[in-house]
Amino acid sequence: MHIEYVIKYSNRKTFSITVERDRQVVVHSPKNLSEEKIKQLVDSKRELIQQKLNHVQKYPTNISAKEFVSGESLMFLGKSYQLLVVEAEVDGIQFNKEFKISKNDQSVANELFKKWYKKRALEIILPLANEYAENLGVKFSECKISEMKYRWGSCTTKNNINFNWRIIKAPLFVIKYIIVHELIHLIEANHTATFWNILSIQVPDYQRAKDWLKNNGHLLEVDF
Ligand SMILES: [Zn+2]
Question: Which residues contact 143 (CB under 8 A, 6 or more apart)?
Fold first, then answer.
């Protein structure tokens, strides 16, 4: 497959390739390299570039932040729920078909919600990660919910799996896809045919999840 890229020459001595947020491939090159040589280098990294381009991450964001006033809606597990700000005291965040917070907490709503989402994320993701890890016959050391910005999940060489807390706003079938995707990376580092084969066995409708992320990923990229 042909890879489009732009070349940025500089005084640096090293050659590197980055995939930008808009998926543009940028080649950073020393001035003395010929275009032919650069093409060869890009070709040699083709698989890695393709992997970065395909990976579940990085969507442009253009949505204003919440003010946490009554009538706003917040996403949770793929659905939108209305926020109600009440005069009465509420212990943090109440959730029952709608979100309820006290007017007194409005100024700290951002932190309250982040904490609430992170807690729910761990409660929902950890049991699923355990279940799928067993199905796949893989072992992970730690499962963390973290504050990553432009990716939905990642795995480390120490067999840890990390998930962006914001994925808890997505429908369950999308969350499952992201979990299984990272778990399979523990046994198959690249997006090879084997990778997608294993994935399709665990998550037969994974394409639907990929499409959802493609169309709605920007909703996850903002905090709320
Ligand atoms: Zn991947």
Answer: 122, 125, 126, 129, 160, 161, 162, 163
- What residue spans define the domains of the chain? 6-54, 73-221
Structure tokens at 61: 């964001």
For ion ligand 1, residues whose CB falls within 5 Å:
55
Q: Homologous superfamily of 73-221 in CATH?
A: Metalloproteases ("zincins"), catalytic domain (3.30.2010.10)
Separation of CA 47 and ligand 1 centre (Å): 12
195 alpha carbon – ligand 1 mean position (Å): 9
Q: What's the gap in Å between 51 CA and the centre of ligand 1?
A: 7
For residue 168, give Cα distances in angstroms to 19, 48, 151, 152.
Answer: 26, 28, 13, 10
Q: How far apart are CA 51 and CA 189, in angstroms?
A: 10
Tokens of 129: 């990660």
Helix, strand, or coil (residue 61): coil
102 and 84 in contact (C-beta within 8 Å)? no
pTM, 2 dp: 0.71
> What tens digit of pLDDT does each residue of 47-84 get?
777 777 776 454 433 334 678 999 999 999 999 999 99
